[in-house]
Design goal:
Distance between the termini: 68 Å
Helix content: 25-40%
Radius of gyration: 27 Å
Strand content: 15-25%
Strand order of the largest sheet: 4-5-6-7-9-8
Largest sheet: 6 strands, mixed
Length: about 375
């Protein structure tokens, strides 16, 4: 990034609360000093992670950096620019009071900015800290609100601007797409012009790969490479970590669901072979459908199909099966008992997915052609 900015605003959560690598903090302070040498001031409000952790509180800042008090709201004025910045830090991790209502009145004749760490009225995936109504901000009389806490960039209002810039780097698959800051330019008495500026060094993406009509693994890998190529071009030159969802009606459905791990490694190998180290497949989800048969063969396989269909159609039967399998699930490695990969025996959808995979594996093995005698 190469911008001649007058000052920098950071709306909280510099470091994760449990982050203990002080090299990160030292690097940050070194960069703040570089800004100081260029005559650029930095204004920070501490957020919930800062209040919970030691890093932000324990490292001394260069003189060009001001961290707002947590005791009460305060105002810093930049006289040459006629800018007034109002802010208050978190005193503790879980702040449930509406901090915005106590922010001071705008300074007459100045461009007034509110710097606030808040969830507003609530945002999915984020604790409801320092909650406030949008009207609390809009009616304060400030010219701009710079908000922190929410990791997804969002311009909540435009008159005046109320802006979440989001986090500067996606950390996991729930934080997809471009991440960075907002560059705000105001000339004379005009409205602020807000431009997103990417700062991330790696991208997370969800990719759906449609396998409709695909009949062989090679055809499926070709379809995947085409889709990933589009993704890389859209994110050029950054590397991409992707979660794939395979969709569509395909003759490959049974083979895919019978051995998901083999397919996952085939996709990873195909990505590395075609695109090198710019790619990584984080996870593969299967949402394909089998090609409908025009005729149904009688016999054991048909009976198996009917049994599985009846089981998947009954949440009660799935819960009963989950209860029967609970002792087995409890013996699985920790990776299958925690996080997103957790197998929940009390969730019919989870059990239905396991039944579908078991069904596919049985069909794959029972339909396998016998080898030479």
């Amino acid at each position: 990034m190469d911008e001649a900015v007058d000052f920098v605003l950071i709306a909280g959560d510099l470091f994760d609360s449990d982050w203990r690598d002080y090299n990160t903090g030292l690097y940050f302070m070194g960069q703040m000093r570089r800004l100081g040498e260029a005559g650029i001031a930095v204004f920070i409000v501490a957020g919930n992670h800062d209040a919970a952790g030691r890093m932000t509180r324990s490292l001394p800042c260069p003189s060009n950096v001001h961290i707002f008090s947590s005791a009460r709201p305060e105002t810093r004025q930049l006289e040459p620019l006629r800018v007034a910045i109002h802010g208050q830090s978190f005193a503790k991790a879980a702040v449930t009071d509406n901090l915005a209502v106590n922010y001071p009145e705008p300074v007459p004749g100045y461009f007034n900015i509110g710097l606030l760490h808040t969830s507003l009225t609530g945002r999915q995936g984020h604790e409801n800290y320092a909650p406030c109504a949008l009207d609390d901000l809009v009616n304060k009389g400030y010219d701009y609100w710079a908000l922190g806490h929410v990791h997804q960039a969002e311009i909540v209002a435009t008159d005046p601007p109320v802006v979440f810039p989001g986090c500067i780097q996606g950390r996991h698959i729930r934080e997809v797409g471009e991440k960075g800051c907002m560059v705000v330019v105001r000339e004379a008495d005009g409205a602020p012009q807000i431009t997103p500026q990417a700062l991330d060094v790696i991208r997370w993406e969800h990719l759906a790969v449609d396998l409709t009509g695909v009949e062989t693994l090679d055809d499926g890998l070709t379809r995947f490479r085409q889709r990933f190529q589009e993704c890389l071009e859209a994110n050029d030159p950054l590397p991409v970590i992707a979660r794939l969802t395979l969709i569509g009606q395909t003759h490959m459905h049974t083979r895919i669901t019978a051995d998901v791990d083999h397919l996952k490694q085939s996709l990873r190998a195909a990505a590395l072979s075609a695109f090198g180290e710019r790619t990584w497949i984080e996870k593969v989800r299967i949402n394909t459908r089998p090609v409908t048969q025009t005729a149904v063969d009688a016999g054991p396989l048909h009976e198996l199909d009917l049994l599985v269909a009846r089981l998947k159609a009954s949440p009660e039967a799935l819960l009963d099966l989950g209860a029967e399998l609970t002792p087995l699930f409890q013996k699985l490695p920790a990776a299958y008992r925690q996080g997103e990969a957790c197998i929940r025996p009390d969730d019919p959808e989870t059990i239905a997915g396991l039944v579908a995979r078991a069904h596919a594996m049985l069909l794959q093995r029972l339909n396998r052609k016998a080898g030479p005698a």
